[in-house]
Amino acid sequence: KAVAECLVSQQQDKKKEDEKDFFTSKEVQQILSVSPTTLYNWEKSGKLLPSRIGHRVYYSRSIIENSFKSA
How far apart are CA 56 and CA 42, in angstroms? Predict the structure, then answer.
């Protein structure tokens, strides 16, 4: 029963992630399996441009998807 609850919880977390429009730097690093340095270099080169709200950095789903469709 505990395993089933764990699986349901993971599925719900995955569904929430699929519905998100913006991701933090940490989330993008995990999704793309890249280091913070790589993400920083992509930002500086213009490959993946984030949005900033105050000191917080967010990446939109569409920017992420479009950046790698053209690659």
Answer: 17
| Alpha-carbon torsion, ordered 49, 15, 53, 37, to 10 deg | -40
* The two three-digit tokens of residue 9, written as one number: 């919880």
Tokens matching residue 15? 């569904």
The DSSP secondary-structure symbol of 71 reads: -
**DSSP letter at 35?**
-
CB atoms < 10 A from the CB of 30, how many?
A: 12
Is-above-0.90 flag for pTM?
no
Tell me the pLDDT tens digit for each residue of 11-20. 566 555 567 8
Q: What are φ and ψ of residue 34, in 5° steps?
A: -125, 165
Place of tokens 């490959």: 47
